[in-house]
Amino acid sequence: MIKPAEEGWEARIEDPAGHVADVVLQEQLAVDPFPSAALAQEAAEQFVDELLGQESSY
Q1: Over 60: is that where the pLDDT of 57 sits?
Q2: Residue 10: beta bridge partners?
Q3: Which of 6, 13, 34, 51 could, after both became Cys, cross-link 18 (CB 3.0–4.6 A)?
Q4: How far apart, in whole angstroms, are the C-alpha atoms of residue 12 and residue 41?
Q5: Number of domains making up the chain
């Protein structure tokens, strides 16, 4: 989920065990200038895909 925040974007993976991943994702989207909604969504999706790829390599 991506939604506008006070400064930039708020992004949540919404996985009960994914709090650390949420923090990392927030840091990746906290750039200046803030990305457009489409770029933020694409970055979030890529981040989740990378997480899933790492998980399956264990």
Answers
A1: no
A2: 3
A3: 13
A4: 11
A5: 1
CB-CB contact of 1 with 11 (8 Å): yes
Average pLDDT over residues 7-32: 69
Residue 56: which H helix or E strand, with range?
A: helix 37-56
Compute CA 58 distance to the chain's CA centroid, rounded to the nearest angstrom: 22
Exposure of 38 in the CB half-sphere (CA atoms within 13 A): 0
For 17, which DSSP code?
T
- Calculate mean pLDDT across residues 43-48: 81
33 is in which domain, residue-wise? Answer: 2-56
Q: Decide the pairing of beta strands 9-11 and 2-4.
A: antiparallel
- Is residue 9 very low, low, confident or very high in pLDDT (cuts 50, 70, 90)? low
